[in-house]
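ugh ok so i messed up the first submission bc i forgot one of the chains. this is the corrected input, ALL of the components this time, i swear. 225 residues overall. if the numbers dont match what u have on ur side tell me asap before i send this to the collaborators (the ones from the other lab, u know who)
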Amino acid sequence: EPEVTQTPSHQVTQMGQEVILRCVPISNHLYFYWYRQILGQKVEFLVSFYNNEISEKSEIFDDQFSVERPDGSNFTLKIRSTKLEDSAMYFCASLLGQGQTQYFGPGTRLLVL
Amino acid sequence: AQSVSQHNHHVILSEAASLELGCNYSYGGTVNLFWYVQYPGQHLQLLLKYFSGDPLVKGIKGFEAEFIKSKFSFNLRKPSVQWSDTAEYFCAFSRGYQKVTFGIGTKLQVIP
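and heres the new structure output, hopefully the right one now
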């Protein structure tokens, strides 16, 4: 069965550094998402992406965050200047279309020191 | 704002006990409903989903859930749990192709 993949599985960074989290969605899917889960809290939506543009974003997704689909297969989340509170598990998801199910990747655990 | 409430944050059961995890969502329109499971150290997996049709849906590993529209509920059930069901369970919903909104999760611990 096709899967969403994410790299790296773990990332440790210093506060103020830029990080790029990478995702490879399922190949024929059209909608792409990033979520995060701070330890002990629920999974929260960050941003959705369709047709090469952001279709929805949450309050969390401020100017420090950006997303890109640079080459038709990868889907990246960039955090420009990480803060301690960005430490979380970040999940990528993709969706074929309406009436279908979002498939989640295994996540990248980000730790900001 | 749309949200999902899960009634139990931590449930401890003995093997062979029956399980019911409560879930209510707040949105007045048509929704897609999900239960996801996260086993220790693993990623989110879809347990079952409801889009339309029979409100009683069956998922993997003997789980089922019932959608009751009048109560905005989508409770998860399993008649007899096993130790391997120890995991965190998330109720969630979405509208069409939009974001999935998750509940806070219920940690289930099954004691052998």
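quick check: The two ends of chain A are 37 Å apart (CA to CA). that seems consistent at least. Chain A is about 0% helix and 50% strand.
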